[in-house]
């Protein structure tokens, strides 16, 4: 029985093809994780706005509305693997900020801006900002934001 010798050319071709294939495979996984985070941020913004709308049906107190938004932010943070984070609420006069205690690159990983307009329209605007850092493509991080505006109506 004769054995063929493995030439160096075959090894080099295998390494190049393997590296290109793995790069494509990891890029697809990374983009999937990015889009999952992007849709989760949009979902959190929509859910917080809907929750504020429901709570505002029973109260005009900004404190109750904001405590509800803070509680809902804690509940929804599991979508972004931040369920063990602590959140702080700050702000006044209609502009409020809920921030996560986890920080990447000098920014809070998750921040929720809430603006409640107390004029005759009673509009509420919720902006959710998430600092996404990937393993392969987005090593330095990228900020994902989603903004939702709604009018607070009494039914």
Quick description:
By secondary structure, the chain is α+β, with helices and mostly antiparallel strands. Helices cover 41% and strands 28% of the residues.
Would you write up a description of this structure?
- The protein has helices spanning 8-56, 62-76; strands spanning 87-92, 95-100, 103-104, 107-108, 110-116, 123-132, 142-151.
- It is an alpha+beta fold.
- The protein has one domain (9-151).
- The strands form two sheets. A five-stranded antiparallel β-sheet has the order 1-2-5-6-7, covered by helices on one side. Strands 3-4 form a two-stranded antiparallel ribbon.
- Strand 5 (110-116) and strand 6 (123-132) form a beta hairpin.
- Helix 1 (8-56) packs antiparallel against helix 2.
List keywords for this structure.
alpha+beta; five-stranded antiparallel sheet; 7 strands; 41% helix
| First-last Cα distance | 88 Å
Cα shape: elongated
**DSSP summary, beta strand count:** 7
As a whole number of angstroms, the C-alpha radius of gyration is: 23 Å
Contiguous runs where pLDDT drops below 50 for at least 5 residues: none
Order of helices and strands: HHEEEEEEE
Helix content: 40-55%
Summed over residues and divided by their number, the pLDDT gives a mean of 82
Number of structural domains: 1
Lateral arrangement of strands in the main beta sheet: 1-2-5-6-7
Classify the secondary structure makeup into a structural class: alpha+beta
* Residue fraction in strands: 25-35%
Oligomeric state of the chains in view: single chain
If helices are DSSP runs of H or I spanning 4 or more residues, what is the number of helices? Answer: 2
